[in-house]
């Protein structure tokens, strides 16, 4: 199948009970700026203008578990963040408000949790 138009991924959305707070966390973590801020939707854009992150209010948000456990809310997606210095990146993430997950499945990856419990991976490029 050929496409008659170009499709461009622009934003990944994360559900949250507090869009502004989670956007500020990821803004500090990634060095990105807020492009749009409304009460129920905040959009961060990368410094190069490529894919951004959007945070949408979900009043019924349930914090995911990592690793997955039967009968508990599982993560639906996670972010992969490439780094050149894993210890320094982890220190930065923790200073921004992340939590190091108890379960770490790989030597060259650190699984962290954002303030709302979304897992994200720092991986050595």
UniProtKB/TrEMBL annotation:
According to UniProt, the name of this protein is: Catechol 2,3-dioxygenase
Oxidoreductase in keyword set = yes
Q: What are the recorded GO MF terms, alphabetically?
A: dioxygenase activity
PANTHER family linked to this entry: CONSERVED PROTEIN, HYPOTHETICAL FUSION PROTEIN
Query: Is the keyword Methyltransferase assigned to this protein?
Result: no
SUPFAM superfamilies reported for this sequence: Glyoxalase/Bleomycin resistance protein/Dihydroxybiphenyl dioxygenase
Q: Which residues form the VOC domain?
A: 8-125
Among the Pfam families in the record, one is Glyoxalase_6
What are the alphabetically sorted keywords of the record? Dioxygenase, Oxidoreductase
InterPro entries listed in its UniProt record? Glyas_Bleomycin-R_OHBP_Dase, Glyoxalase_6, VOC_core
């Amino acid at each position: 199948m050929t496409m008659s138009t170009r499709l461009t991924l622009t934003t990944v959305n994360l559900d949250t009970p507090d869009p502004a707070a989670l956007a500020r966390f990821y803004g500090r973590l990634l060095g990105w700026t807020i492009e749009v801020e409304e009460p129920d939707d905040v959009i961060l854009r990368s410094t190069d203008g490529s894919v951004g992150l959007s945070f949408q209010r979900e009043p019924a948000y349930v914090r995911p578990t990592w690793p997955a456990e039967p009968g508990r809310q599982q993560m639906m997606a996670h972010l992969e963040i490439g780094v050149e210095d894993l210890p320094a990146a982890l220190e930065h993430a923790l200073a921004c408000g992340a939590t190091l997950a108890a379960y770490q499945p790989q030597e060259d990856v650190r699984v962290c949790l954002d303030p709302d419990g979304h897992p994200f991976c720092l991986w050595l490029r």
